[in-house]
Amino acid sequence: MGHGRADEAGGEAVDDTANPDRVDCLIIGGGPAGLTAAIYIGRFRRRVVLVDADEGRLAMIPRSHNMPGYPEGVRGCDLLAQMRAQAGRYACDLRRGEVTAISRDSGGFRARTTAGPVRARTVLLATGVLNLRPPIDPDVHDAAVASGQLRYCPICDGFEQTGRRIGVLGLTAHGLAEAMFLRSYSDDVVVLALAAPDLNPDLSAQAAKAGIAIEAVPVSAFDFDGGDVGLTLDDGRSLRVETLYAALGSRTRNELGDGLGLDLSGDACFVTDEHQRCSVAGVYAAGDAVEGLDQISFAMGTGSRAAVAIHNDLRNADGQVLDD
Prior knowledge:
CATH class of the largest domain: Alpha Beta
Mean pLDDT: 92
Distance between the termini: 40 Å
Helix content: 25-40%
Largest sheet: 8 strands, mixed
């Protein structure tokens, strides 16, 4: 996803809303939210530029089985390719690159990107989040995710782990909550620490009562060479699980919006109204960067809602709606 800092553009502002060089919407981020919005806005016969750094999480999903319309599941990279092709049918300008700066001007916004400058009447932030990863070599990490040994989303694929020995990495309240969720799929769930835990004893007691094992000695090494996952603990002991969920949290990609002065929630997501409008006029947000489920279908829903709001807000600004 494109990300960076906000930057005030110099020079005298000129109202060039009708300037043919200014597109109707700049979408930052090419995941399911951004691409859904691009398809909608393109079908509204509007000019849209989408800039994406190809760092989104969807491409890493080996196969999603809870995406409606795909009873046999769909690979994340295949879904992205199909959505990009669909957006291309409606003349959406899809660019590979990073947005490094964005600022307000009298006609809307201007952005610096590694794929060329963009001037737009509106901006949609579909920048997503970054999963916090275990300390694993990037190539090993990606191979483990592709094979299903390492996972990040129990809502997405907990069903496929039914009856398996499941490890949850992250001895925190968040990790224990994830383990409790997974307990409905398996009676063999162990929560593992990445560092010395500082955990409320009451939470540990609740987990133990639910039949969840807790290993408080931190993990010092990971082995993904076999069909399962080998874990070495700081005290030299080892154990194996069939799949490992990383429950280390995530970070919202909010730098551009924060620089524009957008309101952020307690967990640093963008605050929006019911139509995905942010606290600064002309800026919208969708997908995992707003409050809600980190799910493909949820991201698509917010992307379509933002696109309709953008189209209608521009129609209203241009006097293309009936007066009340």
